[in-house]
Each structure stands twice: as structure tokens, then as C-alpha cells.
Write a structure and sequence with these properties.
The complex is a heterodimer of chains A (about 260) and B (about 250).
Chain A (H helix, E strand, L loop, with lengths): L14 E11 L5 E11 L3 E6 L5 H8 L7 E6 L2 E2 L4 H7 E4 L3 H4 L5 H11 L4 H14 L15 H13 L5 E5 L7 H16 L3 E6 L11 E6 L2 E6 L1 H4 L12 H4 L10
Parallel strand pairs in A: 3-8, 3-9, 6-7, 7-8
Antiparallel strand pairs in A: 1-2, 1-4, 4-5, 9-10
Chain B lengths: L14 H4 L2 H14 L5 H18 L3 H7 L1 H15 E3 L5 E3 L1 H27 L2 H12 L7 H31 L8 H29 L15 H15 L5
Antiparallel strand pairs in B: 1-2
Helix pairs in contact in B: 2-6, 2-10, 3-6, 5-6, 7-8, 8-9
Bound molecules: adenosine-5'-triphosphate and magnesium ion (MG).
């Protein structure tokens, strides 16, 4: 098993999110997470991979206080999430697996403005943030459209904009490529890479490594609620098949990790 | 499903777009309340103003007619019921006097609905809601911000729920639900998955709102009265005064 408390390229960087011996049990006694200790560094791009039901979504929901641990602790910027979930949620934005249930506004503008409105910002600042967020995901000119008239890819991008408008430092994305066709996937992937190069910390979960792993700096593999592998993608990737994850084609062909998008 | 959103907001810069939503709601309520007493002068002047407003807001009348076609059928029904009488026997009796009166009634209803359509076409939904909050504020028991959030969510999710219902019904027809004859069991089979999905997505929705720091102390849309609003209220009062004339 790889080292659990992975420290990043420079040993002294501060971690922006840290979990220590995190356990989670659901009401029906399912053990969702089991002894998860991870530290994420500022600016890092991490992919969390795992088969269906391995606990990826459960883990993400702990990182911004939507779920609270049975035992163990989560800290964001050094502060306990359990004590101040609001502060954690401002720093850690989350894009949900199902964009449809995440969009709460009656129009695209309303939805992008929902977060900043909750932060009780002034209207001018809200408008500025909404414009910037919609520009970042290429949805300018859609302000007055109704969310249920958007395509699947546009909805996913709106969900990302809604999170960006809160100006978080960390972006959690739960299966950001599910249900997207090729061009939509490219657009979303492109936007994620842009956000990363702007200094955002990115954590993506997926069961399909093909599309993102070439861009990631770290690969965490989960199985049955535990972290079973953690390290550089090139080192970890060869063993993932054992945990029900399909390695990228290029790896299967013995060519190593290649970018999926040309 | 789209019928729900046809009289939707159309962005623009017309005078009506620039009015404060509270002014527009007050005019709508005031003029509707006074319309039962309005006669020909009132109705003609109101119609002219409404037509001009539609023109200025850049909304084609054909679109309005398309949007309210079911309502127009209803008006026709009202007109017929009010005009045709059966005085002893099976022969219908059409009286010109009643027809005039019925026309007046239908005209008033049409005016009220057109004003509503005008309000919805020129005001963003969030602003309509903010104005509603402003009017609800003096009422003690109502939590106006909560009410506003609820109204917004219903508008957002009604189409989704209807879509899910249609999908479930299609999926069940694809597996031959029509061969079951008992309507009660069919209803059960249909509504259980629907409720489950609605509640599941409600759970997700709560999580999504929490993840974006939902709180009661939110920024509401800015509302501010300007000179235009004074002018519009003045015009509204003038039109109202025409009820004094036949
Ligand atoms: N609310 C819940 N109550 C009970 N068990 C749950 C609940 N949510 C998830 N689980 C269980 O916890 C385990 C982990 O679920 P989780 O949603 O985190 O998996 P996942 O890795 O995100 O899977 P997927 O790839 O399908 O999204 C699963 O076995 C699931 O059945
Ligand atoms: Mg999941």
C-alpha cells in the first residue's frame, strides 16, 4: 500500500484540506468511509478514482461539511469543518454528480447569483462575479434562459459557474464528465484545466480515468470506503484494474499515460 | 410542459422594463380591482394603453394570443353562457342587450390577463418575487424571505417534476402497464416512483443549497422608485378616473 499521508512535491507546503482517520457510517449501518487520512495541498490537481459505491461522493461531502464524521476530523485551511461549516463551504465549492438537482435558480443569472446572494454581497459585486463566472464557463448571453431549457453540457457548466461565483479556493467535482458528449467533455475539461492554472485546488472523482488522469498531479484510489492507493498517477496507474477501474487505453497498450484531448 | 413558461420574461429596455416591479404590481392590482366598475371609456382607454405598452415592450400580439389561447376559449364560453338564455323550452334565445353586457365582462377579464402577461413579460422573475416580499413585509405572521425562496423553487422545479412524471409514465407503458385493469393499483405503481424521485431530488437540493451557503440573510434584488414610477402611477390614476364616465 502506498504512503497514506502524502505530502506533495515540497515537503513543507501547507495542506488546504486535511482529513485524519475519518470514519462515516450511514443510518442503515453501511460503512461509507473507513479510516481515510488525506492531505490536499494548495494548487494541487487530484483525481480520486474508485468503482461504484467505493465512497467517493461520501468523501467529497465530508470535505465541505455536508456530512459530519462518525469519528475523525476534517480541517479546511486549518479550521475544523464541524465547528464552522459555513467558512469551509466558502473556501470549498462543490459541483454535484447530478447537475439538474444542483441548479436552484429560475434563470441562468439567478442560479449563478444564488451563492453570492447567500454571502449577502452588494448587488454590484454580485453582478461582477456572475459575469466573470459565466464568462469563465462560456455561458455569456444565456443570463435570461431557463435552466431546464439548457443542454446537459450547458447545465454542467452552469453548475460550475454557480460555484465559481462564490470565489472558492478549492473545487470539488463529482463525476464532472458523466452524461457529456465529446465536445461538451472537451469544453468542461478545458475549463477545469484553466481553473487549475489560475491557482485553484482541484479534486475530481471519477470511475473513468481516461479523460483526466494525464492532467492530474496525484491519483487516489478508493475501494470499499478506504484509500487503497495514493501517489503520482504514473506510479499508481498500473495497479488500478484490481479495484474495478479501467486503466486508460494508452496504458493498456503499454504507451504510458497520454492526454485524452489533443 | 412548455406551457408553463411561455409568458416568460423577454429582456428589453422599454419604459415598462424600467419601472420598479412594485409599481407594476400596484398598477396591476389597482386597475384589476377597479375594472368591474369600468364602462366603455375606461375599457377603451385601458386597451389603448395596454396595446401601446405591448408595442413598446416589443412583444408581438400574435405571441400573446398564442400564449393565452386557452383563456380565449374560456372567454368565448363565458360570453356564450351569458348571452344565450333558454326561456321556457328548447329554443335558445339570444338577446342583444345581454350580449353587450357579456362583451363588457369578457373585455374586463381580457384586460386583467393582458396586464398580467405584460407584467410577466417585462419583469424578471426574481424581481417579481422581491416586490412580493416587499408587499408581504408588513404582514406579521408571514416569513416573507422564506415565502420568496419557496415560490422561486416551485417555479424552478415544477417543470422538472412534470418531466419526471411523464418519463415514469412512458417507462411503465413501455413495460405494458396498460394491461393492468385496476386503476387504483396503476395509480400506486405510478406514484410511488414519482414520490421517491421527488423526495430524493429534494434531499439533493437541500445539500446543493447548503453547499452554496444558503442563509436567510441573503441579498435581495435592488428595488428603487424613480421619476418614471411617479409618472406611471399618475397615468394609472388618470385611467382609473375614467370609470366615472360611461
Ligand atoms: N444515504 C445513504 N444511506 C445509506 N447508504 C448510503 C447512502 N449514501 C451512500 N450509501 C452507500 O455508501 C457507499 C458509498 O457510496 P458513494 O455514493 O460514496 O459511492 P460512489 O463512490 O460515489 O459511487 P458512484 O460511482 O456510484 O457515484 C455505497 O455502498 C452506498 O450504497
Ligand atoms: Mg458518487
Amino acid at each position: 500500500m502506498a504512503v497514506l499521508a502524502w505530502r506533495g512535491p515540497q515537503d513543507n507546503t501547507v495542506s488546504i484540506i486535511q482529513t485524519t482517520h475519518l470514519y462515516h457510517r450511514f443510518a442503515d449501518d453501511t460503512q461509507g468511509l473507513c479510516d481515510v487520512s488525506l492531505a490536499f495541498n494548495e494548487g494541487e490537481f487530484t483525481v480520486i478514482a474508485g468503482a461504484n459505491g467505493s465512497g467517493k461522493t461520501t468523501l467529497l461531502r465530508h470535505l465541505n461539511g455536508l456530512l459530519l464524521p462518525e469519528s475523525g476530523a476534517v480541517t479546511v485551511c486549518g479550521k475544523s469543518v464541524e465547528e464552522d461549516p459555513m467558512a469551509a463551504r466558502q473556501q470549498v465549492g462543490m459541483v454535484f454528480q447530478d447537475a439538474d438537482s444542483q441548479i436552484v435558480g429560475e434563470t441562468v443569472y439567478d442560479d449563478a447569483a444564488f451563492g453570492p446572494e447567500n454571502l449577502a454581497l452588494g448587488r454590484l459585486q454580485i453582478n461582477r462575479r456572475v459575469t466573470r463566472a459565466l464568462e469563465a464557463v462560456d455561458l455569456c448571453g444565456f443570463e435570461n434562459k431557463r435552466p431546464h431549457h439548457l443542454s446537459g453540457g450547458e447545465k454542467r457548466r452552469l453548475a460550475i459557474a454557480g460555484v465559481l461565483a462564490m470565489a472558492p479556493r478549492v473545487l470539488l467535482m463529482d463525476e464532472p464528465f458523466s452524461n457529456l458528449d465529446y465536445p461538451a467533455t472537451c469544453l468542461v475539461l478545458d475549463q477545469i484545466l484553466n481553473l487549475h492554472s489560475n491557482g485553484h485546488t482541484i479534486i475530481i472523482t471519477t470511475h473513468d480515468l481516461e479523460k483526466v488522469v494525464a492532467h492530474a498531479q496525484r491519483l487516489v484510489v478508493m475501494a470499499d470506503g478506504r484509500v487503497v492507493e495514493d501517489g503520482l498517477p504514473t506510479e499508481v496507474i498500473d495497479g488500478v484494474a484490481r479495484y474495478g477501474i479501467r486503466p486508460p487505453c494508452s496504458v493498456q497498450l503499454g504507451k504510458g499515460i497520454r492526454p485524452w484531448m489533443s | 410542459m412548455d406551457e408553463l413558461s411561455t409568458i416568460g420574461f423577454a429582456p428589453g429596455q422599454s419604459p415598462l422594463h424600467q419601472l420598479d416591479p412594485r409599481t407594476k404590481q400596484a398598477l396591476l392590482m389597482g386597475l384589476s380591482a377597479i375594472s368591474p366598475w369600468g364602462r366603455l371609456t375606461f375599457l377603451v382607454s385601458l386597451s389603448v394603453v395596454i396595446l401601446l405598452s405591448f408595442r413598446a415592450a416589443g412583444i408581438r400580439l400574435s405571441r400573446l394570443i398564442g400564449d393565452i389561447r386557452y383563456f380565449l376559449l374560456f372567454l368565448l364560453f363565458v360570453f356564450v353562457v351569458r348571452t344565450v338564455t333558454f326561456s321556457g323550452g328548447w329554443i335558445p334565445n339570444i338577446s342583444v342587450e345581454l350580449a353587450g353586457e357579456a362583451l363588457m365582462v369578457c373585455w374586463r377579464l381580457l384586460m386583467v390577463v393582458s396586464m398580467g402577461a405584460l407584467l410577466m413579460a417585462t419583469t424578471r422573475a426574481a424581481d417579481i418575487r422581491a416586490a412580493l416580499v416587499w408587499y408581504l413585509k408588513p404582514i406579521p405572521v408571514v416569513d416573507e424571505k422564506m415565502a420568496a425562496t419557496m415560490v422561486g423553487l416551485v417555479v424552478r422545479f415544477l417543470p422538472v417534476i412534470l418531466f419526471q412524471a411523464a418519463e415514469i409514465s412512458d417507462a411503465q407503458r413501455a413495460r405494458g402497464i396498460e394491461r393492468r385493469k385496476n386503476p387504483l393499483s396503476r395509480l400506486m405503481i405510478f406514484s410511488l416512483p414519482l414520490f421517491r424521485r421527488v423526495f430524493l431530488s429534494a434531499d439533493e437540493l437541500v445539500a446543493a443549497m447548503q453547499a452554496r451557503c444558503y442563509s436567510e440573510h441573503r441579498t435581495l434584488p435592488d428595488l428603487s422608485f424613480s421619476r418614471h414610477d411617479g409618472l406611471a402611477i399618475g397615468a394609472g390614476i388618470l385611467i382609473s378616473l375614467t370609470v366615472l364616465f360611461p
